Amino acid sequence: MNQETTEDFLLDRFDISLLAALQKDAHATNQQIGEQIHLSASQVSRRIQRLESTGIIRRYVALMDPARLGLGVRAMAYVTLTHHSGEEGMAFEREIENLPEVMDCYAVAGESDYILQIVAADLNALSDSVLRRLTRIKGVSSIRSNIVLHCIKSSTELPLNHIGQAGGTTRRIRLTGNT
Length: 179
Fold this sequence. Notes:
The termini are close together. Helix content is 32%, strand content 27%. Strand 3 (102-107) and strand 4 (114-120) form a beta hairpin. The protein folds into 2 domains: 4-62, Arc Repressor Mutant, subunit A (Orthogonal Bundle), CATH 1.10.10.10; 67-147, Lrp/AsnC effector binding domain/regulation of amino acid metabolism (RAM) domain (Alpha-Beta Plaits), CATH 3.30.70. With 179 residues, the protein is α+β, with helices and mostly antiparallel strands. Pfam families: AsnC_trans_reg, HTH_24.
């Protein structure tokens, strides 16, 4: 049985600096990070393990350039279902898991039920293989899409400035999750 758990977790300025350094370069060694944030490599290692065990650090990835890999088209698709809840939503979400071209899928409130970020090799691939597959998913009422012409900003770095305190060295954050 899943239960919602809540616990307090203390982050100090070193933790915040460590998280910022890892977001910039997760491939950096503990020694390199330690030199940046003024901690020993062993202290960096212990703090990373602690942040991983709490789920603050979920995983490490290599970020790739889609265009250099032949995925030159990016689109945002706005999907509306015939029914806004129940089995249709769950079925849609299961199908989306099997579409590797869908980079992100968000359930939203507003004009659409879902917003998807999609990559494809070209417009034909987007139309033929991705959007056509989406329209065949049971319960999809409409799909509206926009082609990205130029990316102004794309980031994977979360803002951390809300965690730090002016003049303070420690900040309590509330961790929530299912157990």
